[in-house]
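Entry: Cobalt transporter
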Amino acid sequence: MPSFLSVLLRGLLAGLVAGLIAGTFAYFAGEPRIDAAIAIEEQATHSEPTTGEDHHEDELVSRDGQRAGLFLATGLFGVAMGGMLATAYVLLRRRLRTRDDGRAALLLAGGALLGAVVVPFLKYPANPPAVGNPDTINQRTGSYLLLVVLGLVAVWAGALGHRALRPDAPDWQRAAAAVGGFLLVTVVAYTVLPSFHEVPDDFPAALLWDFRLASLGTQLVLWTGIGLLFAALLSWSGRRPTAAAPLPGGEPVGADEARDGVDAPARP
């Protein structure tokens, strides 16, 4: 298995590239919806009685600056997520019952996408500007972060459910146990955490739907990119020739590991 530094650098690189790709997707799919939402907010603001103050003076960053900063933000976020994925890979590699490095990386990336993105999104979908009560922003932020943690716990519970049955159990029973463990934690989290219904009745439903799809699509692009790039980088390193001393019978030492690029999986 490569050193932690080597794996970490591959994760950071995969995250950076995937973050920039996700930023490009967000620029074309999400920015037009944000502009439309801001226009609605501006219209509502200017329709209110004037107080003699210009609310544009509160803007710290212009819209052009925000658009340019989008790529910086997604790039840095991708680097952080790539680093976390690489760290998780090093810690959990021997517990993943596959000899293929690329498959292990994709499993971890898929689990992160399901637990940290899809589960929170179904409870707390993203909202565009002009939607949401500023007085509840701290409560909404705290609830969302807590649900991210619980979403990852749900994925972990699903993995435990899959492994709880005996190895010779039918596949459908192991799959049912995994889904049951995942749903148990998810349903409890959805029930315990508060709900927020703050979308104005007159806000365009089509705009809200398109914005949420663009937000979810950005995360899908990001995690799909991280998973595929990280798996490709790991597989590429595993195919490099490895020096090994031949055995008397002609079979080189560690030939199986060199071909697969991984250590033998841990026994259950």
